[in-house]
Amino acid sequence: MHRNHVYVFDVAAARPATLDDADVVRTALLDLVADAGLHPVGAEALHRFTPQGLSLAILLAESHVAVHTWPEHATAYVTLTTCRRPPDGFVERTRAALADALGGDVVGRMMDDA
Fold it and tell me: Which SUPFAM superfamilies does the protein's record reference (predicted)?
């Protein structure tokens, strides 16, 4: 039995301005959470770096989702850890949604932790 399901999405060649826009990044994470059928509990942490970039984590009833962006390199790293497996096709849909929201190419993978 798996306790955790971990999904990792590497974003490359994204739009730098978008990666530095906390509202756009937050919306992309919340869309990912909704598609996975998970539940935000209303707690989040946002840190902005100078001169650019951000880290954002959203707590979920099922664990958490987080993103770290590097606009100067046009990259981001998104992780979702959950105790409940999202519906079939989640990785493919999330890759497409993140590419649409942030631009660039998105590579996604699942890593299960027993």
Answer: S-adenosylmethionine decarboxylase
